[in-house]
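Researcher: Sequence recovery benchmark, item below. Answer with residues only.
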């Protein structure tokens, strides 16, 4: 059984035990179920740690953050409900919270179902790749057998060693190609493909769970003169420094991607409120406008930031990026080195569209 499935079973059994305990009048019977209830809680934590220790994909990490948040929010009510069941003086209180507690467990179970479905999809892909690899290995074994029969064991041994080396080189090349496909070769940041894949997952997740998120479209002010004056190598070094500075302002869960040239995108996922995004934007404007030393030359720069909050109704990835891009150009029109918000409702609550 997978760790996620074991966690799912523990949540289900705990919910069933809670319901059974509400029906029991005998304290000794309730005590026995109560011990089993906390035993399943321990199994859940052990399975979660085992799952956390495994090699998680980016998609699984996002689901795990969501799962931990939901379980933490619902844990106090669950513990209080269980303790009230064991106290005869407070047992009448549980009727008010039974439906809420069971609904909470269903929400947690649904997230675990999403993780299990994701793992099943990933396992299917891995199974197909393994089948292809096995087919290739069998073909090579046939060739090796022929070589052994025709040329002798010594020659075949050399072929096997060569094949192993080639397979290792091929595996490394595949890993390198995978990284090149999703990461910018200059800055090492995620690229456009990585960003689009991340948003395709993050947007429906934010909509379903009503998370507040923000997308920043960032364009540097006056980057072309830096290239023209100091050369492209200096320009490349400048872009690397820009990326490193922005990362210092962000959380580990945030995504910073380079689209190309001097354009960057930041995704802030599950922020407490819109004002925190503006705090991040102000920090970015401040840190990016500080002087840079490139090859002994002092360079001054700034950035224009377009902000679009999500989720919103009828919002998709293309529209989200387009609105943030339009807001960035509006920031440039208003004088550069500032941010502009492209969400009318958000502006009403924040009181300002530009700064």
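Model:
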């Amino acid at each position: 059984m997978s760790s996620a499935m074991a966690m799912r079973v523990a949540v289900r059994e705990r919910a069933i035990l809670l319901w059974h305990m509400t029906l029991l009048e005998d304290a000794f019977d309730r005590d026995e179920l109560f011990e089993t209830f906390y035993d399943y809680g321990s199994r859940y934590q052990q399975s979660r740690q085992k799952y956390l220790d495994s090699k998680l994909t980016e998609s699984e990490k996002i689901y795990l953050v969501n799962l931990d948040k939901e379980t933490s929010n619902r844990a106090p009510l669950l513990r209080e409900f269980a303790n009230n069941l064991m106290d005869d003086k407070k047992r009448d209180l549980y009727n008010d919270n039974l439906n809420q507690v069971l609904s909470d467990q269903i929400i947690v179970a649904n997230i675990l179902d999403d993780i299990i479905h994701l793992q099943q999809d990933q396992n299917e892909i891995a199974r197909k790749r393994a089948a292809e690899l096995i087919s290739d290995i069998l073909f090579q074994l046939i060739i090796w057998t022929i070589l052994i029969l025709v040329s002798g064991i010594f020659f075949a041994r050399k072929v096997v060693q060569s094949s192993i080396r080639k397979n290792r080189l091929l595996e490394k090349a595949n890993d390198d190609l995978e990284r090149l496909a999703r990461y910018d070769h200059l800055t090492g940041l995620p690229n456009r493909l990585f960003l689009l894949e991340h948003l395709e997952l993050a947007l429906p997740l934010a909509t379903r769970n009503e998370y507040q998120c923000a997308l920043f479209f960032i364009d540097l002010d006056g980057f072309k003169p830096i290239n023209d004056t100091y050369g492209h190598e200096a320009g490349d070094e400048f872009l690397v420094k820009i990326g490193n500075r922005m990362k210092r302002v962000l959380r580990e869960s945030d995504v910073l991607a380079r689209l190309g040239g001097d354009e960057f995108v930041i995704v802030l996922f599950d922020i407490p409120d819109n004002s925190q995004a503006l705090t991040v934007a102000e920090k970015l404007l401040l840190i990016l406008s500080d002087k840079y030393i490139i090859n002994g030359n002092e360079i001054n720069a700034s950035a224009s930031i377009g902000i679009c909050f999500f989720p919103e109704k009828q919002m998709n990835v293309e529209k989200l990026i387009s609105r943030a891009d339009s807001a960035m150009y509006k920031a440039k029109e208003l004088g550069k080195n500032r941010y502009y918000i492209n969400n009318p409702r958000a502006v009403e609550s924040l009181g300002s569209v530009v700064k």
